[in-house]
Amino acid sequence: MKKIIFILSIFFNFNYTFALIEVDITRGNLDPLPIAVSPLHVDVQSEEVNNIKVKELGSLISSVIENNFKSTGLFNPLNKDAFIQKPDIAHLKPRFEDWSLITAQALITGKLLVKDNKLKVEFRLWDVAAAKEMIALAFTTTPANWRRVAHIISDKIYERLTGESGYFDTRVIYVSEAGPKDQRVKKLAIMDQDGENVKYLTLGNELVLTPRFNPANQLVTYLSYFRNLPRVYLLDIETGIQEVVGNFPGMTFAPRFSPDGKKIIMSFAKDGNSDIYTMDLESRVVEKITDHSAIDTSPSYSPDGKYICFNSDRSGLQQIYTMNSDGTNVKRISFGDGIYGTPVWSPRGDLIAFTKVRAGRFYIGVMRTDGTGERLLTENFYQEAPSWSPNGRLLIFYRETKSGKDGEGFSAKLWSIDITGYNERQIKTETDASDPSWSNLLTK
Amino acid sequence: MTRSLIYSISFHVVMIALTVLSLPFMIRQPVDLPPIISVELIQISDKTNIPYAPKARKVIEKVKEEEKRVVSEQAPPAAKEKEKPDRIPLPKKQDEKKELVQKKQNPEEVKPEIRQASEFEKKEIIDTNQIAALIDKAKEETAKVEKKDNKLTQSSVKNSFATGLTLSEEDALRAQIFGCWTVPLGLPYDDDLLVRIKLELKQDGTISRSEILDHERMNRPGQKFYKVLAESALRAVRICQPLKVPTTGYEKWKNIQLNFNPTEMLKG
Q: Is the ipTM of this complex over 0.90?
């Protein structure tokens, strides 16, 4: 009898536990997250610095952060005119009711102090609904670096709110173009990812193409002409020293660094046939990776350095192939209509970006590393050369407009697009631009 | 040999005797079988009908006495009186307000739509030229109903059996949270990203306590996306409060679990 009562009591207890109501929420809204970026409060003890308006620095930093977030398409920075609370008080203790009133779900506050030629910036990210602090950090640097501080803050907040690392404190190297279409002057240029701080690295005497950063963002490899032959060059950004890579008798092109930065992988053409080679930057040892009568070019390493994707026309049409880093186990992965080019392995390792040409139209797309799941993100008259953002979220590429008979109306601009296919936008550049390459994060 | 013969004969005799005794026509007529059956019936009715018998009598008496039959026949007031002990006692005025709110909370209830449709039907049937339109409308209505059925998830099916939140109440709650939940767009769609939040609610639908059931996962390395999703879900619930909950049966929905799963959305 006792046993029966015991069993019954267990049964009824379980029954009570399962009585909890469960509701599945499988949908939500895809609107960008409303975020309030309060201007940073400038400490009254701040000193004046040459060429910098210290009093406006708080607003300037917050506007850089705001622009960064707006450009992602994931956030909706709210209009500052609607802010009720003053920046200094908000940074100490936000009145969350005021911020939730303007529908802000996240709030960024901060303050800065310029003293002894040092800029100290601290910021806090608040969850308005939970009324709690999510992250708080402080940075000290020289006042001239205020833009980088804004980018670093943006990265930290982006990472905290999305779960993936940011891409704001990065640079883009590209080919700056000017002049008529048939007489273009092309220079190497470098800028912040938001188009600011442009610097030109070459004078434009020689044609330059396909610049690529090394993983440390210190060196750049690119193609230029040496004695009327296209050759791969190496340039140290800080010292300005450049050199020809390797002692190849013919032309070399399509260079790219290995993920550890110790090698350069590129194409070398001889007698009308091009194959893929690597060169160790320290020992200068050259290794032939592919050996085929077809044209093999545009090699790109996987982030772990174990595999390489490249272009080849060995099947008749230009297609994308993958292989082990020693050249074995070559597999064709693209099988769609049209021709495929410029494959680039994603920093996440899960996707390969490419340019596709079909029926006279150019597409930028992505596919899985085994060739499945091909998605074309954007289509246009002429566009190519995708390059990944360091977090593998965005692609930057260039797009040319159709020109008239005399070359009028021609332009080349940089564009970026999210791998979802949304948030396509033009990146502002001083001049026309092509062949962009995104750096890694400058601060890790 | 003789022994075995004796055993066989005696065994057969016993068997024949038993058969004879058990055969119905060999037995004498049973005595008073009907009364035994009637006694059993009385016992069953004694056990089962005790609480109802006095009520039935009262009802019968009332019916006989006056013409207040209509009042006594209306089941809903009687049922409400029964449910009252579950609720916290409130003034009558508030009860009236609650009824009004309940009507607002269930705008998608199927019943009113059907009623409206039937009214239209009555009007339109007069105009024979619009019979086709009427048929189309009927098709649309059935489609709507089917769509609603398709929305049912496993949990909602469970709920209808186990807990007592009606489907319309559950849909209203779900729709409310849909609007408040800003799904983080950068999430990978191939990860297991189910966030379960247990809520303890007040009677007005505000949250007295919230708990992420797998909260320890939030601080594990490599679980940044889960943390972001869990925070967004919690944010949604807080923004949404007071939640649209039924006016009755507080004890049933006092504790509620919300399962946030954006996988379908992210896959597109």
A: no
